[in-house]
Fold:
Amino acid sequence: MTEVINFMNSKKDIIYFDNAATSWPKPSQVLEAITKFMNEIGANPGRSGYQLSIEAARIIYEARESLAKLFNFNDPSRIIFTLNATESINLALKGLLKPNDHVITSSMEHNSVMRPLRQLEKHGIELSIIPCSSEGYLDPDDLKRRIKPNTKMIILNHASNVIGTILPIREVGQIAKKHNIIFLVDAAQTAGAYSIDVNRDSIDLLAFTGHKSLYGPQGTGGLVIGPRIKEDEMIPLKQGGTGSRSEFEEQPDFLPDRFESGTPNTVGIAGLLAGVRFVIEKGVDKIRQHEVKLTQKLIYGLKDFQKIHIYGSENIEERTSTISFNIEGLSPSNVAFRLEKEFGILSRAGLQCAPSAHRTIGTFPDGTVRFSLSYFNNEDQIEKAIEAIRHLIEK
Structure:
């Protein structure tokens, strides 16, 4: 594809299958936007009245606008920039929850959800974890039965980072809205690769990261704060300079400034803006169709081998392009090591920062080998990966 950067000769044979961790390569326009910012702008946004500072602030505003368009959200000022989805989730959880509040989540969550919840549990929140099936499915009726008078929040990942199973966020969003419960969605694995509509899906808080399927650089992400959330009821993670209301020593009470203290990662946001525009230009549906095609080809190819176990749903439409598997008689770490050394295939082995998910699917404590694909992978790479697995099994 013409959008892919030109690689150094030593990297031409690499097959990168770790896009659930971070996408690579990036579209060429992302690199161009980062370079342009550093070479031609470079100023601190919102801190001065000269042209370069104004231009830096314009980039940040346009990034909010593009994200609002992508998520069908009508107020860009309520999109807060953070370092990643983890920071966004921490801001939402620690900013809103108080002792005796009840929170519902699933057994398929990443540690970016589980760890702050476990910490808050020690400080008085009540936590219910809904067991999912071995394929990662969550039954909305199971969730309904866990709702209590003090249930304050439901938090779910949109899709598992381990096996790619997509959770029923639209149905859960309707349940949350009916019971006046805050609904927080972790979209780290889906933003840019799967359709997200915060209005249609009744999402109150959407945590996203910029460096995965939005094709931005690492150190970018954000939190969409829906209209049902009163910003003065959410405590910021930090306070400090915002470039606004500098005459006051108290934190501004309006968005986005209330939650964005300190000099932002403007060069990263410039890259994120280019990545989001790339996604909008290509179309989420087109990106999704390409990834579904590759995922189907890979799963069908691997299923031919008797000594391999593939985890997650067999329905391609109910999963992202993340595939976890194990080979009988070989440890995940050994498989990943040999795939890299013998075939140049980069994957992720182990627990993928989601021990609860691995307990759910029965792969704890060793974990799995995870292939995670992106728009920039192709069918030739899939065929090479299948042949590599064939070689490992036969050898």
